Automatic annotation (TrEMBL), chain A:
GO terms for cellular component: cytoplasm; cytoplasmic dynein complex. This is Dynein light chain. GO terms for biological process: microtubule-based movement. Transmembrane segments: none annotated. GO terms for molecular function: dynein intermediate chain binding. Gene3D superfamilies: Tctex-1. It comes from Lotharella globosa. InterPro entries: Tctex-1-like, Tctex-1-like_sf. It comes from the Eukaryota.
TrEMBL record, chain B:
One of its GO terms (cellular component) is cytoplasm. This is Tctex1 domain-containing protein 2. GO terms for molecular function: dynein intermediate chain binding. It holds the Pfam family Tctex-1. InterPro entries: Tctex-1-like, Tctex-1-like_sf. GO terms for biological process: microtubule-based movement. Residues 8-32 are annotated as: Disordered.
Length: 111, 149
């Protein structure tokens, strides 16, 4: 039974991890073209570190898109060719900041 | 696999596996038990995948414009992702799991930054990305190939 639980990708804990890290870095910040590369690197680095701490037998891919709020629209889509029972992805959309949007996606692939 | 003892000049030599022919010939191809690295021909090749993605983006998004309201844009984004995945499945990389992510935005002068980081086996797993833009929209497509052991 424990083995079954180990195998699956956990959506809720992962979304919580992403939300915590994105909010920690982007809350109260104003979009700055010079700083944004630092923020996006920090977000992916921290999310990856937290995921790795869980010690699960997964490979991870973390992506983050940060966009200035300019009235322009944005769409993302993803599709994967994998083992539907063991692998999973989740995405978190951060929009509570007045000057920017951020979308962070995690793909977790079972080894 | 059977354990077989051959007598060669008096000393027994143990063979762990035997191929179909049963003649004891050592064909390494048949007795490889567990592949942990893909052979070069079956690797995910970033340059090849990059050109493939570029072709798909140009084909799908040429002369398309961004519709802010309605489902049209969501459908286009999904179609691009499905098209890239379909073409990647046709390539000879059979033990690879594939993730494709497509981001399409309206070309209104907003600043955007996209970053990614991966925790995987750097010798076997790769990514390929490509950007495309026209007057109305910009698009980024990134494909990850992760080897299944």
């Amino acid at each position: 039974m424990a083995d079954e639980l180990e195998k699956k990708f956990e959506y809720d804990t992962t979304v919580q991890i992403i939300e915590d890290q994105v909010k920690a870095i982007l809350d109260q910040k104003v979009y700055d073209a010079k700083e944004v590369h630092v923020w996006s690197s920090e977000i992916v680095k921290r999310v990856l570190k937290q995921l790795h701490k869980q010690n699960k037998p997964f490979k991870y891919v973390v992506t983050c898109v940060i966009m200035q709020k300019n009235g322009a629209g944005l769409h993302t889509a993803s599709t994967c060719y994998w083992d539907t029972k063991a692998d999973g992805s989740c995405s978190y959309d951060y929009h509570s900041n007045k000057t920017m949007h951020a979308i962070c996606t995690v793909f977790a692939l079972h080894i | 696999s059977r354990k077989i003892f051959f007598l060669k000049g008096g000393t027994p030599q143990r063979r762990e596996t035997m191929n179909e022919a049963g003649d004891g010939s050592d064909s390494k191809k048949d007795s490889v038990p567990y592949q942990i690295r893909p052979p070069f021909k079956r690797m995910f090749k970033p340059n090849q995948v990059k050109t493939l993605i570029r072709q798909v983006l140009e084909e799908e998004l040429k002369d398309k414009s961004y519709e802010p309201v309605g489902e049209a844009n969501a459908k286009i984004t999904r179609n691009v992702a499905q098209a890239v995945k379909k073409r990647l499945k046709e390539l000879p990389m059979d033990r690879y799991k594939i993730c494709v992510q497509v981001v399409i935005g309206e070309n209104k002068g907003a600043g955007v930054r996209m970053g990614c980081r991966c925790f995987w086996d750097a010798q076997t797993d790769r990514l390929a990305k490509e950007e495309y833009s026209n007057d109305e929209l910009w698009a980024v497509c990134i494909a990850f190939g992760v080897y299944l052991y």
